[in-house]
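Order emerges. For instance:

***
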Amino acid sequence: MPASRLHRVAVLVLEGAKPLDVGIPAQVFTTRASMPYEVRVCGAAPGLVTGGDGLSYAVAHGLEALEWADVVYVPGYRHPDRDDPPRSVVDALTGAHERGARLAAISTGAFALAATGLLDGRRATTHWHYTRALADRYPRIEVDENVLFVDEGSVLTSAGAASGIDLCLHVLRGDLGVAASNHAARRLVAAPYRSGGQAQYVPRSVPQPLGERFAATRDWALRRLDEPLTLESLARHAAVSPRTFSRRFVEDTGYTPMQWVMRARIDRARELLERSQRGVEQIAADVGLGTGANLRLHFQRILGTTPSEYRRTFSQGAEK
């Protein structure tokens, strides 16, 4: 995208729209010096849209905003398993996608994307309460009920409202890099990164204090990425057996402990590439990967690019 113009974000408010779902992309992508985005909230037509939970929305734009946008967010709405979106909305979403815009659904907004047929043959998710309904109504969609979000490139879906934050931060990371995403997460007081493969909710049989203990261990590890970190040392900090730690860690994060450590190291390397002038060898040492060759190997495997190419792409957009 040319640096001379802002990323264009449309938030499509349908009848019965959920207030948290509407507010998340509007707030994450709000225009500011560190966020080169322009947001337009729209509906099937300009004017008052009756929302869910006792709220209504006065939207200034109609479906022409979808012709303008680079990415369109569709917040969740009430009774998605009973009420189809208007034909004009389905056609506008299809047209935006054909023009090259990305479509991103938050929670039950996935039903609106499903109505376009664009999710057929693809993986998708929605709020756990509606995953069965989505699968029954649209059997050609591969519905995954155990993830926070699914990125299929030009179409993205997420679980409940809080997962919409994860989806927006995921998109932001791809647009501007990890430093900008982490900055936005701090502003929102949100987790800077949760795997799309993380489970939507923790099974009730897991005692909450253990979840808190594991979160403390993750924080402990993030402060020691330049040191040797093993499954045994992580389990020792959490005061559980390595077997219990490994099993619960996958449930909590969607990754094995050592996969998570590697991605944390790569994320730290990304931030250093964006925000410092350190060489690849120094960054590799700083994040616990030892050598530049090792950093390049894992960077390519996880991100599909090289550290030098990543720096060229994102150092201009990093917050100074």
